[in-house]
Amino acid sequence: MTEHLTSPAQTINHERSITDHKGVKPQLVGTMTGAALRFDGWPSVNGTVNFGFNWPAIHAGSHVYVSASEIDNAGSRANGSAPYTVQNVVVKEGRVEFRIAIGWNSPLRVSTDILTIDP
Question: b vs e for 92-114, b when ≥16 Cβ sit within 10 Å of the residue's Cβ?
Fold first, then answer.
């Protein structure tokens, strides 16, 4: 029998809440119960970075999906040359933690979409 090991706990590099960014309005289309929002208030980063987002719409039993992309100088989402990968999405009561890996040598702007669906 092989022993099951876990990786060490990671620290959160950036912390935000829904109230940190004026004008963010949750939106959801369809018949599901939940909420969705786009958050562009992250700092410019590169490499592998841990994020935490506090939002009362998220519950410990929610299904939470996070996507990330680059933002260009005009403030629009862009499909640039740098790969953005969302990893390790962890759902907690009132919060989601996730990691984004950005394959670029200098800091880039980050936009995230967060979708939470209650079962």
Answer: eeebbbbbbebeeeeebbbbbeb
Phi and psi torsions of 47, nearest 5°: 80, -155
Tens of pLDDT along 41-53? 899 999 999 999 9
Phi, psi of 74 (to 5 degrees): -85, 0
CB 80 within 8 A of CB 17: no
Q: Could you please report the per-residue DSSP string of 37-90?
A: EEE--PPPB-EEEEEEEE-TT--TT-EEEEEEEEE-TTS-EE--SS-EEEEEEE
Q: pTM value?
A: 0.78
Sequence-separated (6 or more) residues with CB below 8 Å from residue 109:
40, 42, 44, 70, 71, 72
Tokens 């289309």, located at residue: 29
- The full set of domain ranges for the chain reads 14-113
Please give the order of strands across the beta sheet that includes 14-17: 14-17, 47-54, 95-102, 84-92
